Amino acid sequence: PSTSWQMHSSQIAISNALLARPATFYKILYLVGVCVNRIGRQATKNSIKDFMEIGRLRNQLIHGDYGSFSLDKTSSEIYALYKGAIRFVVIVPELLRAPLVSA
Fold first, then answer.
1. Cα 14 to Cα 16: distance, rounded to the nearest angstrom
2. Looking at residue 102, what DSSP letter applies?
3. What integer pLDDT is reported at residue 17 of this predicted model?
4. Mean of the pLDDT values across residues 23-51?
5. Rounded to the nearest 10 degrees, how much is the dihedral formed by the CA atoms of 19, 23, 28, 32?
6. What are φ and ψ of residue 61, in 5° steps?
7. I need a surface site. Which of 26, 38, 49, 102 has the fewest CB within 10 A?
8. How far apart are CA 12 and CA 57, in angstroms?
């Protein structure tokens, strides 16, 4: 299991990467803003949360000891995460191809 230090460390790494590439940072803000406009604030928040949870579980499986990995969720719970995450995921490719709007 990850510790709060590890999570904090990864958040710092992500922040540093985004700050080193301001265009990426603004594109992500734009992406989230468009999602909020299309599916609503709470739906976007939940969809991103579900997407991140699936990624976290995937990373635990792949980068941990996958031979002894124990998943605390049922297949129905994983499918519910997938259905929540897909609302965000289907918007991302379209938005990543779109040019940033200059102010």
1. 5
2. P
3. 59
4. 80
5. 120
6. -70, -50
7. 102
8. 20
- If phi > 0 it is left, if psi is from -120 to 50 it is alpha, else beta; for residue 21 that is beta
d(CA 66, CA 57): 11
Q: Which residues fall within 8 angstroms of residue 47, CB to CB, at 6 or more apart?
A: 35, 39, 84, 85, 86, 87, 88
Does the pLDDT value for residue 62 go beyond 50? Answer: yes
| Residues 57 and 49: beta-carbon distance below 8 Å | no
Take residue 69 and report the two structure tokens written for it. 């990995």
In this prediction, residue 61 carries a pLDDT of 85
Model's pTM, two decimal places? 0.62
24 φψ region: left (φ > 0), alpha (ψ -120 to 50), beta (else) = alpha
Q: How many CA atoms lie within 13 A of 14 on its CB side?
A: 7
- 17 membership: H or E segment, kind and range: helix 4-20
CA of residue 7 relative to chain centroid, distance: 14
| Integer Cα distance of 88 and 90 in angstroms | 6
